[in-house]
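Predict structure. Chain length: 193.
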Amino acid sequence: MENKTIAVVTGASSGIGREFFLALQDKAPHLQEIWVVARNEKKLQELCSLTSIPVRIFALDLSLSQSVTELENAFKSEQPQIEYLICASGFGRFCAVEEDDTATLENMIDLNCKSIVSLTKAAAPFMKKGGAMLLVASVAALQPTPYIATYAASKAFVLSYGRAFNRELQATRGARCMCVCPFWTKTAFFDRA
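Prediction complete.
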């Protein structure tokens, strides 16, 4: 029996992640399952009624390494063919570095950077030839941005990492890794920032 062809969408409960989830209905109706990841389980469950494609819910905080390990274990157990890995989880805060909380800044780095590295590494062996990883960076990745310095630096990391990992992924898996750098977009991001 052939392994399931899936998409994985992090940050799927709202904003850009949710929009990517919705786009999969038209762009990839052949998917056998969509795995959605975010902290808010209730919002993830609401996605099930928006598609005819089966949805598997992972209510996880990806800033915690054990959450990425849970996804990695699911990959190893299910052995899926991942056609799309869309990494849209992330957050930022408008605040001067000196005035911000160190734990919050470190949590931002854990989610915006460390989880990207861990998740793309975990997913790579299961990427379908011709598949794609899409990493949501930001226009902030392209310039230093005072009063949101850690966020901008974390997105610069995502952009640099994604561009380099693209070459490796093409060579080893015949898949691509692309970065999306949206301008300011009206999402729940601003409620938290």
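Summary: The chain is about 45% helix and 20% strand.
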